[in-house]
Amino acid sequence: xxxxxxxxxxxxxxxxxxxVAAWGKDGMVAFGAYNYVALYYPEDPECxxxxxxxxxxxxxxxxxxxxxxxxxxxxINVAIISGSVDRTARIWKLTKDKKWVNSAILESHGGSIxxxxxxxxxxxxxxxxxxxTGSADGAIKVWERSIYDDVHDSVKCLQTINLEKKHPxxxxxxxxxESKIPILACGSTDKRILLYVQKDGLFIPxxxxxxxxxxxxxxxxxxYTELPLxxxxxxxxxxxxxIQEQYKLKDGDLLLxxxxxxxxxxLWRVSYNGEVSGPLDSEEITNGKSKEKKSLRELLxxxxxxTMDTLSFDKKVQLHTKAHxxxxxxxxxKKRYSVMFEALLMGHDDWVYSxxxxxxxxxxxxxxxxxYHQPMSILTSSSDKSMxxxxxxxxxxxxxxxxxxxxxxxxALGFFGGLFGPKGNHIxxxxxxxxxxxxxxxxxxxxxxxxxxxxxxxxxxxxxxxDPTFKxxxxxxxxxxxxxxxxxxxxxxxxxxxxAQVSEKQNSIVTTWHEIGRxxxxxxxxxxxxxxxxxxxxxxxxxxxxxxxxxxxxxxQSLSKLLGxxxxxxxxxxxxxxxxxxxxxxxxxxxxxx
Length: 594
Description:
Distance between the termini: 59 Å
GO cellular component, one term: cytoplasm
Family: Belongs to the WD repeat ELP2 family.
Pfam family, one: WD40
Largest sheet: 5 strands, antiparallel
Number of helices: 5
CATH architecture of the largest domain: 7 Propeller
InterPro entries: Elp2, WD40/YVTN_repeat-like_dom_sf, WD40_PAC1, WD40_repeat_dom_sf, WD40_rpt
CATH class of the largest domain: Mainly Beta
CATH topology of the largest domain: Methylamine Dehydrogenase, Chain H
Mean pLDDT: 85
Strand order of the largest sheet: 8-7-6-5-10
Structural class: mainly beta
Strand content: over 45%
Low-confidence stretches: 232-238, 280-318, 499-505
Protein name: Elongator complex protein 2
Number of domains: 2
């Protein structure tokens, strides 16, 4: 009889690019890990880490997202789509046997696929899926997916949009308000947002939004929902009501958030203005913009450039508040939409890589019925080592950052992406080290506390070895780190194991593996490692020098607590810890008297 083999632990770092991770409706995170798509449940009370890796891509995965279907709060993720440097996009779905399969391969791009856009709306069509891919070949391709059978999908390319000398950096897809007419937003290297509206099955260029002063790295759509007249179940109700009154957002308005390397986030509003009987007169059209009544906003807009520069609080940032008009011709009627700049979010000190709306939630209206609601809350991540949560101020309606979390230290180089959990009480970030950073809101007062997450090497692992007692193992990698992995043996608290019976909660011993330390952070690629004894190892790197490392007291004590047993060794004679000096290659021992 063959022995049963199961995967106990998987460690791999997240790829160091934006848009490479997504958080699905069921609580699962999918992210690019070298050539793989890794799956992980951040809210798992047992902290089991990566549960599966999807194999198929031949080069680095650049972007990942979930495909949703359904109406309002009944939406579910039905598939995962990933784009890669290998010039392909792949669709992955779960079969009836609960196995992940690669159901379709999209191979028509001529360059690396760097960005994806999947439909995000209050209600999404359930028979077919519309999504877009953007590539380094300067093209955007529009795709339509339908289910063929349990393991295969039918995918066809509906359209190719060539941006010529520009490259798509961010894509977002939704429906125009009060319709099922798709609208596509594209942020590119020319610092503008291009809006396309679908007509007769093809996306037509409709509008160009200007304002950003650098590349646009992230776009995200959300549908605004009005709150009931009296509602006390949502913490953000006061601020949402203020926004409704101050800026007259209407139920169903489409909001677009854009993040840029100019350090700013901009909000744009798309509103339905009703039906029109005929086209605009030629005198009413000026470069695609409607000629409206002279308002204070338009007077400011029409001032000379030098005057606008003096009014601007930043010479590089100007506020354009004129409404742009989009007319959509249907079979018998013409619908008119207005697009307007809504808000400027300032607070980050470096490039903003991602912007993410808080997922919709359920509220109770005045009649006691559950109702779909889109919170006015945005999460942004930046190279300044921070993530921020933005909400409108309760008094003024001005968007402000209420929460700021992040890293402190000279080795941290910022975040590439930030994600809201499906319930809105968790946020997740990934950055330059390949690790994920997880925070949970423990109360309604924005008490965000760090939680256990996952990490791994972000370059090739060259060597790995067990310690002589087989209690832990150490790896070395071309990411210039030595990482130590050990089991965490513990008993789950009663509140941690949600959904379990009382008898199951008691005496529930859990063992999971984690990275608990990095004994060596080097300036050269590390190639080999070997143990001398349980508390001493030797590593060799490209510098052609062997370095010997001894375990400090702090590590031995921490390992003892994680394993739940005493460790042997001369504990008192060992240094307390170790420190790596700036620009140094060797750890310096720290003693109690230092």
